[in-house]
Design goal:
Structural class: mainly alpha
Radius of gyration: 15 Å
Number of strands: 0
Helix content: over 70%
Number of helices: 6
Distance between the termini: 12 Å
Strand content: under 5%
Largest sheet: none
Shape: globular
């Protein structure tokens, strides 16, 4: 139990560090919301190693801390809306067990963007922000592939560490 809590704490810290690193990267694509989604590595790893509840707690803690340290209330709610839909889709796909880590990550990246667009539509009271979705889907696919490959390669190593 102590090892599990410590490892989840490390994943929260790692996810927070990735969120901070991502906040330093200049926005080269002039479309709001297009990001690498690096912190999803920590979320997916927590999900695969420990399960839904732990991943949900880990991701909520990371989003809260990131918003307080280098974000805003808006960034908290946008990140949370995307994260909730993303993790629900990822859990469902893992339970179905028909996709690799890469497929799960891609679906999670797309779901994250859809969640954020839905919140933006609610906040702005306009369907116009929906036009960003195709660009966000492309970024979700690309980022999901990279994150998924990393999770697929590192998961066996981290699984051995957690089990020891």
């Amino acid at each position: 139990m102590k090892k599990k809590v410590a490892f989840i704490g490390l994943l929260i810290a790692f996810g927070l560090a990735l969120s901070f690193l991502e906040s330093l990267i200049p926005q080269v694509i002039p479309i709001p919301g297009v990001k690498l989604g690096l912190a999803n590595f920590a979320v997916l790893m927590t999900l695969y190693l420990f399960g839904f509840k732990e991943a949900l707690i880990m991701n909520f803690a990371r989003i809260l801390l990131a918003s307080m340290m280098f974000g805003s209330a808006f960034s908290f709610f946008y990140a949370l809306s995307g994260a909730l839909l993303s993790i629900l889709i990822e859990v469902l796909l893992i339970k179905i067990d028909k996709m690799s880590e890469i497929g799960v990550s891609v679906a999670g990246g797309i779901a994250h963007n859809v969640g954020q667009i839905l919140l933006a539509i609610i906040i702005t009271k306009t369907i116009g922000v929906f036009y960003y979705l195709p660009f966000l889907i492309v970024s979700g696919i690309l980022a999901g592939i990279v994150i998924g490959i990393l999770v697929k390669k590192l998961r066996p190593v981290l699984k051995r560490i957690v089990k020891d």
